[in-house]
């Protein structure tokens, strides 16, 4: 341990010394400049196909602007070189640097044309040679200082240098604005050219992309170049907020990277539309266009509305003729509409899928950052950041957040609701203004309900919290104050209901009350509910206008969802056994929790849980109550997680861990709070505190590295406890692993290997026209019922269908896919197994 401590001290001291050396700073700045130059050269020469000479000159100017800014403000700040006019230094710097550019250009041309080297490799050697030339001129001539740089008092200010300094500052700012302008034009032009040459988009989308890239570059470069004196103090004050934003950016970037090939809008690149997206993705456009809520009523509209936002820019067309009202009342109307709208109306299907997913992903990332902001109202910024870090570095959430599904967004709104409830309770106890927190609690509850109906479990959880605080905090809730507390608690629920009804009202604006009555009669079970309830809902829909119709439609969706839960979800595969409607039992969700989350997070969670138990044993019961009153958010998160997990474990609706996302997010936030608490305590420990940065760094690097290593198969990710992603399907399939996302990869394999008569048994939505991806020569196949395939045929089987087939005990061996175990010729992505049928069928 002592040797590690000495090594750490030596590394820290050495780094500080190196940063004081001008040449080391020069090397760092030069490295940054080299990266920018290489990127620019790659774009100018590799992308725009300019000649090597012109491309080198242009890219070198980009690097020079970066060099001058950093040399002026950081590299040579150990001496006072600011007395020399900035314009003079700028001119001298360019004179010396362009002489270096001439050297680079000559060496680059010789390397590429004479020695036939790669232009990037030639750039490395040419830059290394000219680095010493540039260092000599910058240190001993351009930025040469006469006196050590000290902080002068007002009395020591030299009056005759004020005008020179003021002119220099003006020129410095002017040069920074010029640099910003150059970078803006460069980013806009590069973005538009990339869109044209790589993704072949329309001129309108090209222009929009160029404007957006230019605007983003203007904002970023202005903060860095023009207002650095404001940026760095702001960054110090808001370090954790910027880190949280970086986590959200990482979350979006990794998700987009896993979908990057989909941006080609090709049927063979990227990930295909998944099972649930066939119904969820297109229905938001139906609501917006028709103002009726016939399709997909069992899912609230918020996610579907967000997914439909980009359709206004894609010039999409509605199906003709539209679905009749008779078909709209059927359960499969949502799938009928999805099939017509996406695949049979002449629309750009792949563009619609990509932009709808991107819209939902961006909304989820914004909600994650808002969750951080909300948490800082009651926790420390570091505790909030650690919770956000856990969320944004979890493969499971990354994989599902980029799909047009309701699970991630509903879980985020649930966490926001509980967070603002905790803020409201804490402010109420301290007698601070709490009206804003109350309204935000209701608004977030409405957002949760308008995302997914299972979030209605917020009602009992919030009610128990309010009742528990009313009982435990009797001393502060006496007389008139108790009455106000009760009214405010009821107001949370009523306001949430009002917000949800107002949101639904827009979706039923053109829907007749009689149509909603027809839906209610189909979904209202008089065997489980009193008949007068149906009468009341009918009257509300018919006689209370648009708000009455909105309320009844909301109730209809809840009823339809309840019927689905009550009747079960059909078959499920789990841990080597095939189960029917009875479900896989209480171990289903706990096992998935332990196998679908990162091992590092599970270790941190376990250590924190054990430590909390030890602390709780030492504390007295009275202190427990006092701690609960002082930490309402922690109590509400734990309470909701226990309620939701308990109901999920006892439920037979077991079709994926995505259904307990609220539990996962709650445990991540609680683990973040506990981790922050122990970091604070252990950092002050004289014996082991200096190891804390190393522990935190290793844990963070592990989690980020796991995300990068798992790319791009985030939906099917399993940890080492399940044998890794490649073997995870042996634990559970469905949306945990196989959701139809690899169909495009199968189509690419089919084209590459020229397999015209492919047979397949895949997990896909029944309303997905598979010929859209695989062509008309591919045909479905069921080994249990169809005749054996001829020798030499190719058969593609998804792991979901494989496990379901091989674990049905009533099937003989020659009717299972297990007989082809030794005949596998390819594995497509992670979820599709391809077999070549042998000459003789293997018999048991």
Write the layout of secondary structure elements.
Blueprint: H1 2-20, H2 22-47, H3 52-75, H4 86-114, H5 119-142, H6 162-199, H7 203-226, H8 228-237, H9 239-258, H10 277-290, H11 302-308, H12 325-328, H13 333-343, H14 349-375, H15 381-392, H16 395-401, H17 407-429, H18 435-449, H19 458-472, H20 480-507, H21 513-523, H22 531-543, H23 545-567, E1 572-574, E2 577-579, H24 588-596, H25 599-618, H26 621-630, H27 632-650, H28 661-683, H29 692-710, H30 743-752, E3 759-761, H31 771-774, E4 779-780, E5 794-798, H32 799-806, E6 824-828, E7 832-836
Parallel strand pairs: 3-4, 3-5
Antiparallel strand pairs: 1-2, 5-7, 6-7
Helix pairs in contact: 2-3, 2-5, 3-4, 4-5, 6-7, 7-8, 9-14, 9-15, 10-11, 10-13, 11-14, 14-15, 14-17, 15-28, 17-18, 17-19, 17-27, 17-28, 18-20, 19-20, 19-27, 20-23, 21-22, 21-23, 22-23, 25-28, 27-28
Question: Could you please describe the fold and organization of this structure?
Answer:
- The chain is mainly alpha-helical.
- It has helices spanning 2-20, 22-47, 52-75, 86-114, 119-142, 162-199, 203-226, 228-237, 239-258, 277-290, 302-308, 325-328, 333-343, 349-375, 381-392, 395-401, 407-429, 435-449, 458-472, 480-507, 513-523, 531-543, 545-567, 588-596, 599-618, 621-630, 632-650, 661-683, 692-710, 743-752, 771-774, 799-806, and strands at residues 572-574, 577-579, 759-761, 779-780, 794-798, 824-828, 832-836.
- The chain is globular and about 90 Å long.
- The two termini are 60 Å apart.
- The relative contact order is 0.06.
């Amino acid at each position: 341990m002592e040797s590690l401590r000495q090594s750490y001290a030596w590394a820290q001291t050495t780094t500080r010394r190196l940063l004081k050396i001008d040449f080391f700073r020069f090397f760092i700045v030069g490295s940054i400049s080299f990266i920018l130059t290489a990127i620019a050269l790659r774009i100018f020469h590799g992308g725009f196909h300019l000649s090597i000479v012109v491309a080198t000159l242009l890219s070198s100017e980009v690097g020079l602007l970066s060099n001058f800014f950093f040399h002026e403000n950081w590299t040579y700040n150990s001496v006072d070189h600011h007395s020399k006019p900035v314009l003079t230094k700028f001119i001298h710097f360019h004179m010396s640097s362009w002489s270096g550019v001439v050297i680079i250009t000559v060496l680059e041309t010789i390397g590429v044309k004479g020695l036939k080297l790669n232009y990037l490799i030639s750039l490395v050697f040419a830059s290394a040679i000219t680095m010493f030339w540039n260092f000599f001129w910058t240190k001993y001539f351009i930025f040469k200082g006469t006196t050590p740089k000290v902080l002068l008092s007002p009395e020591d200010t030299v009056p005759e240098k004020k005008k020179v300094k003021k002119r220099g500052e003006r020129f410095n700012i002017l040069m920074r604005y010029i640099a910003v302008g150059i970078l803006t034009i460069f980013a806009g032009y590069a973005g538009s050219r990339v869109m044209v040459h790589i993704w072949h988009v329309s001129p309108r989308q090209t222009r929009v992309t160029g404007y957006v890239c230019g605007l983003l570059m203007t904002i970023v470069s202005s903060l860095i170049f023009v207002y650095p004196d404001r940026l760095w103090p702001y960054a110090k004050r808001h370090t954790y907020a910027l880190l949280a934003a970086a986590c959200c950016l990482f979350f979006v970037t990794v998700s987009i990277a896993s979908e990057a090939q989909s941006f080609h809008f090709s049927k063979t690149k990227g990930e295909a539309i998944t099972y649930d997206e066939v119904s969820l993705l297109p229905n938001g456009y139906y609501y917006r266009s028709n103002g009726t809520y016939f399709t997909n009523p069992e899912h609230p509209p918020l996610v579907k509305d967000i997914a439909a936002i980009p359709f206004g820019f894609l010039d999409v067309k509605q199906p003709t003729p539209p679905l009749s009202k008779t078909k709209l009342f059927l359960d499969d109307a949502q799938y009928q509409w999805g099939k017509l709208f996406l695949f049979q109306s002449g629309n750009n299907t792949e563009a619609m899928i990509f932009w709808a997913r991107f819209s939902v992903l961006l909304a989820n990332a914004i909600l994650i950052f808002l969750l951080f902001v909300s948490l800082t109202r009651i926790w420390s910024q570091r505790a909030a950041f650690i919770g956000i870090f856990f969320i944004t570095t979890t493969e499971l959430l990354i994989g599902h957040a980029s799909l047009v599904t309701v699970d991630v967004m509903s879980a985020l709104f649930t966490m926001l609701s509980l967070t603002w409830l905790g803020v409201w309770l804490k402010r109420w106890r301290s007698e601070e203004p709490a009206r804003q927190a109350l309204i935000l609690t209701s608004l977030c509850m409405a957002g949760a309900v308008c995302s997914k109906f299972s979030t209605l479990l917020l009602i009992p959880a919030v009610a128990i919290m309010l009742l528990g605080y009313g009982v435990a905090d009797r001393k502060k809730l006496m007389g008139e104050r108790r009455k106000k507390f009760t009214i405010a608690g009821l107001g949370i629920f009523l306001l949430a209901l009002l917000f949800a009804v107002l949101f639904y009202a827009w979706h039923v604006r053109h829907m007749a009350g009689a149509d909603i009555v027809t839906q209610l009669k189909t979904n209202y079970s008089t065997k489980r509910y009193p008949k007068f309830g149906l009468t009341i809902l009918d009257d509300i829909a018919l006689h209370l206008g648009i708000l009455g119709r909105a309320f009844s439609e909301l109730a209809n969706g809840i009823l339809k969802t309840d019927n689905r839960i009550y009747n079960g979800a059909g078959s499920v595969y789990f841990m080597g056994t095939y189960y029917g409607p009875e479900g896989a039992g209480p171990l289903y969700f706990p096992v998935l929790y332990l196998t679908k989350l990162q091992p590092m997070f599970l270790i941190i969670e376990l250590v924190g849980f054990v430590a909390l138990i030890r602390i709780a044993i030492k504390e007295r019961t009275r202190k427990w109550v006092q701690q609960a009153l002082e930490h309402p958010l922690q109590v509400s998160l734990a309470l909701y997680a226990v309620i939701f997990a308990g109901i999920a474990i006892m439920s037979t609706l077991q079709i994926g861990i995505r259904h307990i996302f609220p539990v996962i997010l709650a445990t991540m936030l609680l683990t973040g709070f506990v981790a922050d608490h122990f970091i604070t305590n252990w950092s002050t420990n004289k014996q082991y505190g200096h190891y804390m940065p190393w522990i935190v760094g290793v844990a963070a690097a592990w989690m980020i590295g796991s995300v990068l290593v798992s790319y791009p198969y985030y939906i099917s990710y399993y940890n080492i406890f399940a044998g890794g992603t490649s073997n995870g399907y042996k634990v559970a399939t469905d949306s945990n692993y196989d959701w139809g996302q690899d169909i495009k990869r199968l189509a690419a394999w089919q084209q590459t290997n020229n397999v015209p008569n492919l047979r397949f048994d895949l997990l896909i939505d029944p309303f997905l026209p598979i010929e859209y991806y695989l062509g008309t020569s591919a045909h479905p196949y069921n080994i249990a019922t169809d005749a054996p395939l001829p020798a030499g045929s190719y058969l593609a089987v998804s792991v979901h269908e494989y496990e379901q087939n091989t674990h049905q005990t009533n099937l003989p061996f020659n009717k299972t896919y297990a007989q082809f175990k030794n005949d596998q010729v390819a594995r497509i992505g992670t979820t599709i197994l391809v077999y070549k049928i042998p000459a003789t069928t293997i018999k048991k």
